[in-house]
What we know:
The complex is a heterodimer of chains A (501) and B (1034).
Chain A: H1 2-15, H2 18-22, E1 30-31, H3 39-59, H4 61-65, E2 72-75, H5 84-90, E3 100-101, H6 104-126, H7 134-159, E4 162-163, E5 179-180, H8 182-199, H9 213-226, H10 230-237, E6 267-271, H11 284-287, H12 295-302, E7 314-318, H13 320-325, H14 331-336, E8 337-341, E9 351-355, E10 372-376, H15 377-390, H16 396-406, H17 416-431, H18 438-444, H19 448-461, E11 490-491, H20 492-495
Parallel strand pairs in A: 3-11
Antiparallel strand pairs in A: 2-7, 4-5, 6-10, 8-9
Helix pairs in contact in A: 3-6, 3-7, 6-7, 7-8, 8-9, 9-10, 9-15, 10-15, 15-16, 15-17, 16-17
Chain B: H1 2-21, E1 33-41, E2 52-55, E3 61-63, E4 69-74, E5 79-83, E6 90-93, E7 100-105, E8 115-118, E9 121-124, E10 132-136, H2 137-140, H3 148-152, E11 159-163, E12 172-176, E13 189-192, E14 195-196, E15 209-215, H4 218-221, E16 232-237, E17 245-257, H5 269-282, H6 304-308, E18 312-325, E19 328-340, E20 347-360, E21 365-379, H7 391-396, E22 415-416, E23 428-429, H8 431-437, E24 439-455, E25 461-480, E26 497-520, E27 523-548, E28 559-562, E29 568-587, E30 591-602, E31 611-622, H9 627-630, E32 635-649, E33 660-662, E34 667-669, E35 672-674, E36 678-679, E37 690-703, E38 708-727, E39 736-758, E40 762-779, E41 786-788, E42 792-795, E43 802-805, E44 808-811, H10 815-819, E45 833-835, E46 854-857, E47 863-873, E48 876-886, E49 889-891, H11 895-898, H12 933-941, E50 948-950, E51 953-965, E52 974-988, E53 1024-1033
Parallel strand pairs in B: 1-7, 13-16
Antiparallel strand pairs in B: 1-4, 2-3, 2-5, 5-6, 8-9, 10-15, 11-12, 13-14, 15-16, 17-18, 17-53, 18-19, 19-20, 20-21, 21-24, 22-23, 24-25, 25-26, 26-27, 27-28, 27-29, 29-30, 30-31, 31-32, 32-37, 33-36, 34-35, 37-38, 38-39, 39-40, 40-47, 41-42, 42-43, 43-46, 44-45, 47-48, 48-51, 49-50, 51-52, 52-53
Amino acid sequence: MKKYILVILVASFALTGCEDFLTVVPETQLSSATFYKNQTDFEQAVNAAYVPLRSIINDRAWLLSEMHSDNTYYARNVLFGATDNQEDLADFSVPESNGTTANGHVLQQWRQDYLIIARTNQILALIDDVDFEAAAKANVKGQALFLRAYAYFELARYFGSVPLHLTPVAKRDEAALPLSTEAEIYAQIEKDLIEAVSLLPKKAVQTPGRATEGAARTLLANVYIQRKKWPEAEQILAPVLTHGYQLMGSYDLAFPGNTANKNNAESVFEVQFIEGAAGLNGNFIYQFMPRPISAAELQPIMGTSNPQNIDGEGNNIPTPDIIAAYEVGDKRKDASIGTVFLSGSFRTDKNYPYIKKHAKQHSQNNNTGTNWVVYRYAEVLLFMAEALNEQGKGGAAGYLNTVRARAGLNNSTAAGQTELREAIFKERRVELAFENKRWFDIVRTDRIQEIIVPYGQRIIANPLDYYYPPIAGAVPRSNAFTNIKKFYAYPAAESDLSPYF
Amino acid sequence: MLNYYQTFIKTRFIGFLLALFIVSVSTSYAQSVTIKGTVVSEGDNQPVPGALVTVKGTQKGTVTDIDGEFSIEASVGETLIVSFVGFTTNAVLINANSTNINVTLAYSTSDLSEVVVVGYGSQIKREVTGSIQSVSEKDLKDLPVSSVAQKLQGRLAGVQINQTTGKPGQGMNVRIRGQLSVSGGSSPLYVVDGFPITGDINALNPDEIQEITVLKDAASTSLYGSRAANGVILITTKKGSVGQTNVNLNVYTGWQTVPEKGRLEMLNAEEFAQFKKEYYTDAGQPVPEIFQNPADFRNENNDWYGAMMETAPITSYNLTVTSNKEKVNTAVIMGYFDQKGVVRNTDYERFSLRLNTDYTVSDKVNVGVNIAPSYVVDNTPQTDGDRGTGLIFNALHTWPVMPIYEEDGKTLTSFNRFPANTGNIFAYPNWLRSADEITNETKVINVLANTYLEWKPIKGLSLKTTFNAELNNSNYFYFNPSTATNRINVALPTVASSVRDEYQGLSWLNENIATYGRSIGDHNFEALVGFSNQRYRQDRTRVAADTYADDRLPTIQGAININRGGTISGVNEWSLTSLFSRLTYNYKGKYLFTASVRGDGSSRFGADNRWGVFPSTSLGWVLSDEGFLNANSTVSFAKLRASYGVTGNNNIGNYTQYALVNNTINAAFGNTVFPGAGVTSLSNTNLGWETTTQFDIGLDFGLWDDRLTFVYDFYTKNTTNLLYAVQIPQESGFTNFNDNIGEIKFWGHEFSLTSVNTTGAFRWTTNANISFNRNEVIALADGIDRVYGSQHITKVGEPFGQFYGLVKLGNYANAEDLANSPQVPGRSTVGSIKLQDINGDGVITNGGDNDDRTIIGNPFPDFTYGIINNFAYKNWDASITASGSEGNQLYMRHLYSTANLDGVFNMVAKVKNRFRSPEDPGDGIFGTTVGGGNVTGIERDWNNSNFVYDASYFTIRNITVGYTFKNLPKTFKSARIYGSAQNVWVLTSYWGGSNPEVSMQGNGQGDGGNLSQGVDLGSYPVPRTITFGVNVTF
Lengths: 501, 1034
């Protein structure tokens, strides 16, 4: 009899209750099944979509688009190795095989841009099905579209054709997509930004730091200019002139401080940092310092109470070329470039230039809250000048001269479309120096041969002028300036995983 | 959840419990006489104290005294069973005249009649059809080490046990039959008194162990279902011997040292200064003043590694009280173990208590309770790890010209940095201070409890229900005061920081098992059915804080900043529901058959794949019982066995199947932090266990009355559905997709033998084993044929986790050689490392699938072996345990710093023979220093064959010599003193450090613990230990 009781118990146990007992959901983490349900969820989701911008700006944008130009170079330190990832970018010697490269910065740029795209795709795929307040929804959606377009614009300029992901990936076999043409990518960017312009609030009513209608218009104008769509650029940009933006009184005030002056009147879009231990800080100015620099040499520049020596190899050092590019009397020169004496240097002249315009006083060593300006009103004026001049319209010189006036310079003497084109190109170089614009300007104006090739020849001929120490063996590497191309090769690590490139 | 569980227990089990509690008690009476006798050993006719004398079929029993004498009540017609470990069991029928009997026990070489513990029961060894091996406590008792696994080194065929670090209580890597998983765990399942534990086996006092059984093949393990693929180690704790009360005290104490021999040979101060001088000279630069006369440093060497080491005491006390009289069988074991470490400021202490009690309520009902609390305090500096985190690595690569002590020779320096113009790049704190001042302490409370109720309603039927609980409470405390750091280039004072990490784990298991055994004629059956539920929950609270106002108050409230990035509260939970059954049948004990099956439902498996079924079957044939061998006097025993079965590995993480949202991806706008959230993983509702299908064939053989016994096994197994985070293109926004992929094939041969070499007064026995384990990756995921680690590759068609890199051919001998050889564009120079152009494209490239890298080494041995010799002569006994590994290699990863030719760190002495010029090319191992990191970086930063060295070893693990006192006063039952030396001698050609068993796990992408074995970053040395002990029984 008792045996039967046992059998019944076993059977009843086996048939019921198991699923409940065996369902153990994570208690301390949210899962996708329970998220994306309300306004707060979507606001948090769009906040996270901004996050990869910090890594892009702090750690590689300046390597891929400023040091990869004639504006900055590295200060060779022969005692250090493992520096070829950066050197290859500055030296136009990024190793390439079968259209791919192992360069880590190229890889990370790719990954961070697609992280923005994946996070915005999640939002855009789900937000229309969730009911919440219309204005808030439009704001979130507009920001998501802005960020997705921003990421694709970077990818299109760095790589050309790239995979076009517009919906969230849910399964393994959806992870890789074929390459879409540059035209297809730009079409999507334009579409997203036109919608973003209609959804986003103006700067006056937006949380400072988030994307605005003005930012979307400026980004779209940049896209049109890249595509040489001059009338469209003028048209989309014109309303920005009435949004209340203005040039700051002096050039140095255009660049935010560690806590003050962020998202100021000139600012159109900035990548945001906060100093402290919460992980929202930057340290790009430390990466820009020539080395080896002692704590005592660093302290006056950073103003911290705990400066530390920095060894290694300094990057993003202003070249003699950019220093010479400023006209006499240009106030921007001293505001942009400082000089620091490095007692530990092997060079005879131990004075090095550094990027002063981004160096703002802060409190903790290697931890800054200084924002990075992506677009500011001075560039809006120069975009406007360029769009008008390229259409052969008048008024271009006026916008150019507004920018020059603040720099303490007389009106441009350029006459005619061609001269004015040159004047605007030169003005962009000095006004926007060290703002990661130079490489893109050179590419979109088809001046790679004209500018980069002779620049490389100058370095190889006169390495001492470009911060090499007077030491045997400390010369430009034999592969320097051997891979000068419009686009970067695709990252090898991604290529290994994708069947399409 | 707890409420739910309580309800669950009530509704499901109360009925069952009630059924078991309804018992009937019956007793019987018989006429008895008192029998006295003496037990002596055959051959030397010595009295055998401690032999067990029982009356067959009853609970009655006694033990012989120091003179081998006993006295017991028995009835005429009953049989006395006399047994003692190491002797064959003897049976004596009681007749009317048997009031005084002498029993002679023959020395046994075979333990075939012994009962061994198997999964969910026990079996007579000769009837076992699976591949198992058991070790008794008497073989392990003298070894002066902290953990069970250390004691097993060299003893088990097919089980590789490596001590990867000398940190007390840590670093034992146990792998049964070479089992590996890409990302799931590979440690065996430890089952203590029937309870699969979740905590650390090292917390168990080895003196509590009676017997260890290792289950290797699928037939032995498949009753453990989804947790069995890595093999199972069953641990049975001590019980009293029938009729006996013993009080045993075992104490040993001794000291540990790190032998000079085998240490990594680094440059001394003078040699280092000489290197620096040559470095500048060769580069055509002025030599800094301080290095112009290297001889100045002749008497100022600073051996940073040596200074970290000290001679350290080790002490162990164990008091064991066992009693098995009347209806109560009790064992109480109290242990205290204290091991100071050979690295400064190491202290590992374990306090343990175990109380095992069985109570015979009646002939039909038994109950039992085991409860074993332990408390471990482990205070060990952060010795192991990469440069900048591991103090051993840090000490090795610190300049020997930097002073350890101030001028007074006693006070430790705090910070060492030469002026920048000496070409120094890094600043070093004093690592001895780091070891002394940084707190890195873990306190663990472990409580293991088993209870059972067994009811035997009819003959042959047993109904047993068990409740088991395991509590682990682990408290980790780390405090880095402002005066110390374990990183290079951190100026002192630094920012004081702390981490508190507390885990509370609770595991519950209820098992209900019915066993029925019956013999019908020559047909013997045993059937088992059972079901069980286990649930585990772990709560974790980690608080990281920094910027302390005062180093003396490392409290949380004393910190100015709580580091939110490092502060975590988390829950880890799983549940497992199982049904299992086994049928054992044999005919005349000659033809043996077993089949078993287990079904496991696990919360870890995806909703669409919740239940796994794990069947097995095995056959045995005792050839020696057949007529054709029966008459053979040479062959005393022969058994052929074969098994086949399926097991699983459920170490796939608790929530891997879910798509998780990270809600700490915070954004900044202005000066305000805004919370952010994003999906960080993809869901997989089909995620399941890893499946291993194993076939085993074995032969057990005994010759000359089992004086020589021999066991051979061949196995082959395939592991499929490996859990792997398959890397996916990050254009998806995700890094990987957790899936069950691929297939690995394992196969191997195991031999073990036991031999009684001499008998009589001088008795010498040998146990030896040798194992050959192989594996090959058959498949990975669709479209993926390889997985890269930092120094490894796991590739289809090759063995798992091979070292991967470029092949070094030498150094470019001269300008002509350079011009005519493939180069690293822009970096190769005369004297720099010359690598093989594997892909034949004319240049050397490193990266991508089609570069010049190839497989350059194998961390797995060709074979491993162990040999144990035991000797006894009169009162003396001795044993020598040795083991070895042949054909495995290590990746000497620390060379990336300790052979950094830029002279920023101290270097291995071999760099003295580097390339200096075409006329002075050195021994070819290390290249030129000229050209700086751009040149030397290749040899240092690119994985290449210059890092790979043979690490075969033969180690004499232990030598013990003991002396047993005889003719003791009656108060003593036995007394023995012994001396023991552990890790006596290591024979190896490996020169990268003192421990050829080291294996540091890497971190980079594609690395899991298993994918990246055999990497040497320098680790806590394994000491040589000399101890003396006393073992007295009252």
